[in-house]
Design a protein that fits this description.
The chain is α/β, with parallel strands linked by helices and 275 residues long. The chain is built from ten helices and ten strands.
Length: 275
Amino acid sequence: MTEDAEAPHLLTEVVDGTILVATLNRPDKLNAISRQMMDLLTQAVLRLRDTPELKVMLIRSTGRYFSSGADLRGGNQNVIAPVYDSSSARGIRENHRLNLNNMQQLWDEMEHIEKPIVVAHHAMCVGGGLEMSLSCDFRLAAKSAGYAFPEGLFGVLPASGGVSRLARMCGPHWARWLIMANKKADADMAFTMGLVHQVYPDETFEEEVMEFCRHLTKQNGEQMGAAKIAIELCSEVGREQGRHVERMANSALMLNPDYIKGMEEYLKGVGGKKG
């Protein structure tokens, strides 16, 4: 069966009118990331970005793997720029930057969108699937989840943000464990690393994930968008410059009608209690 005749490699649905759910849909291929999957995921991410009613995106999958990484056997790289000569170091660098199924560009866009993106790992998440997950805002794991960067088996590095994002998120200590030593991590170890935010029992995983997504929809969208930018900036600069980032963000947030109304209602309540 050809790729075109198969079921879509990614399925989308909207839950509660506010949560965009994207499901990796190649369980027979261990949810290997194909060109079609990347194209559909790109469409979903841009839909989240451009649709005011959508407040949260959830990325999940079914099958024995969350994702086995890039589809190396598919031979279907999405070429968005000239293919450079891979016999030169420069050519390899340029191909990594431009022609890995648009991965680097999409992962960057997911980081930049001022809405929360949640990824839910029910099983092994490796290679490109883990690189994608590192660009999400929240990573939730079932007890049966696991993590690895198998690129070391071939003598190379995960080159679509795997080293850079992992080192920033978990520190060089754990980056060495996953990348240099080529060791796996189960869900509990991933939690210890700071790689995932929470680990849930397999039996209640789907319900817990949706409850968390619904919790996010109740948060103030302006605050979350500003927080996403401020947290990234503050992680890059010193303490003093970080304070400037906080002040700049709040100078806009405190002019937000939602904040003004909320504070007025809160102060009235406090005054009423004192009276």
